[in-house]
Each structure stands twice: as structure tokens, then as C-alpha cells.
Amino acid sequence: MIPAVEFVGTGKVYRTGFFMRRIEALRDLTLRVEPGEIFGFIGPNGAGKTTTIKILAGLHESTSGEARIFGVDHRDPKARSRMGFLPERPYFYLHLTAREVLRFYGQLSLVPDDVIARRTGELLERVELSRFADVPLRKYSKGMLQRVGLCQALLHDPDLVVLDEPMSGLDPMGRALVSSLIREEQEAGRTVFFSSHILHDVETLCDRVAIIIGGQLRALGAVEALVAEHGNLEEAFLSEVDRSTPVDPKTLGVMA
Ligand SMILES: Nc1ncnc2c1ncn2[C@@H]1O[C@H](COP(=O)(O)OP(=O)(O)OP(=O)(O)O)[C@@H](O)[C@H]1O
Ligand SMILES: [Mg+2]
Prior knowledge:
By secondary structure, the protein is an alpha/beta fold.
């Protein structure tokens, strides 16, 4: 079966500052996400999760290796049209309403106007924002904006949903809502790849997880197996962090 997401030896080196200091954010990532999976991507702050997701979304160039979406090079717009994406810090034009913002994104993805209108209604209802559909986003709270971000990611019915910390900023009801949305996506046959620091949610939702530390893949497996071995996902994660070589703060690469 063609994987929904495939990284092969993917790496990313950032160059920053006047001296073009080398920062290795991702090293030799090889990973497959199978169609229909809910796949969790976890790791400490600065581990390289957002970098990986941005490469997949075509927002950052990788410096080595390959990345594919349903077998198609991630740089090909055809690959990206099958992907819905929630950025870590979604940015919206705050003078627009939720309905207007979703129309804007829908039109960018060439979704027909009648479909945009129908999906907007369905999704805002689903994330419990119908009442605020025509309120400018500047009046929204952080969690409400996060929900609009989710609607934007799902608007064009993508086969692959990539979410960078979808639970961030949400209250417990919001987290439960996002969890059930993710499950519904899977039930509808879609693939979900998401990063999160909320390991309890990852444990209850995901089929498989990857643990990335200092830009390197440290563990990959079925949640069930990790939980059987460590008691829960948090313990599995912490033991992996304990075992890992410290990260060099100058290069963010792993210390030799
Ligand atoms: N544009 C950039 N230029 C230079 N360095 C960067 C850039 N973006 C990220 N980095 C560095 O790459 C490393 C990986 O960052 P990344 O944002 O991918 O981590 P993350 O796992 O998403 O962390 P978090 O859990 O805090 O969101 C970080 O240490 C960061 O300093
Ligand atoms: Mg991040």
C-alpha cells in the first residue's frame, strides 16, 4: 500500500545569523504513516516536530532526503491538495469573520462556493462556533481561533490531515471535541498525523507514535506496545528522553 506520508532520510539544517550558524533541526528521518492511521508525533520542545511538518507542508525546504504524500513528492501541488494542515500558530486576518476566513481559504484551495458554504456550516457547527460565524475573529479567544484553524484544515475534505499541536490552547471540552473530530476523520477513512505535548490524548487516540528528540527519531511503534512495556505513554516518552544523548545548545544537534 502507498503510505499516506513517507519521509526517507529527511534532514533539515537551518542557517541563521550573520555567520550563517548551522543548526541541525532534523537528521535522517525515515518514517511511514499508513493510510487510515492516526499517527502521533511527539518530542520535547525544539525536537524538530514543527520543522518536519513544515517540510511536509512545503513551507520549508528539506536539506536532504525525500518526503512524499500518497507517493507524490511533497513539493508537487497535487500532493498538497490532498492534505489539510493546521499550523502550530495559525494566523488569520482578524477583521474577517469565521465564515469569511473559511471562504477565503476554500477559494484558495479551489473549492466550489456551494461546497464552501455547506462545509463551513457543518464544520462551525461541529466545533461549536455556529453562533459566532459572523463575528470578527479579533473578538475570538485563543481556543476559538484554534477551532477555526481546525475548520480551515478540514474544509476541502483532505485525505491526509496534518495538525501541529491541535489541542494547544483548548480547554478540556475543546480537547475532547478535537479528539472526537480526529476519530471521525479516521472513521471516514482519512489519515491523521499530528504533533502534541498532551500525551494522554496521544495515548488514547493514536494507533502508532514516533518519538523524536534532538532532531532524531528515537522510537517508533504501536501505542499499545509502548504502553504494555512502560505502563503509559508518558513513561515511555520520559524513559526515551532519559536515555537520549544531550542536545548541543550551540548547534541544536546531538552532542558527539
Ligand atoms: N526558522 C528557523 N531558523 C533557525 N532555527 C530554527 C528555525 N525553526 C526552528 N529552528 C530550530 O530548530 C529546532 C527544531 O524546532 P521545531 O520548531 O521544529 O521544534 P518542535 O519540536 O516543533 O518544538 P515545540 O514542541 O517547541 O513546538 C529548534 O531548536 C529551533 O530553534
Ligand atoms: Mg512545534
